[in-house]
Amino acid sequence: MAAAPVLCGIGGAVCFGSEPDVNDAAATIIGTTARNLYDDLEKTGNPGLDRERFISGLISVFNGNQIGDLDNEQAYEALRKIMAPEINRAPAVPDADEAAENAWVANQASLPRTEVLEGGVILQRQTEGSGDYPAAGSTVKVMYTGRLSNGNVFDSTEEPFDLPLNRVIPGLAKAIEQMRYGGTYRVFIPPAMGYGKESVMDLIPGNSALDFTIVILEK
Hints:
Number of helices: 6
Helix content: 25-40%
Number of strands: 7
């Protein structure tokens, strides 16, 4: 049994009539929160809800398993979009000119210390690292800045970031596999090896070429 609250009876603190079981108390709070969240989702009219699968998933995650290939951050973002789609709907942005974007990437091959990789990706070795090359599908720790061909920054890290190579766009994965730990590189990615015709929110238009500066940190 749990010990009685130290402040019971002091300063008007509430005191239970008998000592509660900590397991029961914790389960009540967490279970009520989970039930309320499920009820909120049900009110959205989501047709994919299944109470038994929901409960089974809770138990699986509680036991340390990952379900649906989602980590906590990805699951939170997906749930946010499901529950409030109207505030997550991206404004329409005009597509980029695919031919012009491809030409821009190809022109970067004239920069010093560049090489052309699979799919027309251009890799520039600004400062070559001295470590090993990352294995395909591994997770690397990086700092990076992502820009469009016009120089606009669409993403940038403020601290080292763990990047799983099996979850990034093909052009970036191919390029990082050719980098050595400890180096600084620049990568120019044609649309077909990036997000293709898909726009990413209001930050990256469809058919955009991408320009990344990447520091791949030591293991």
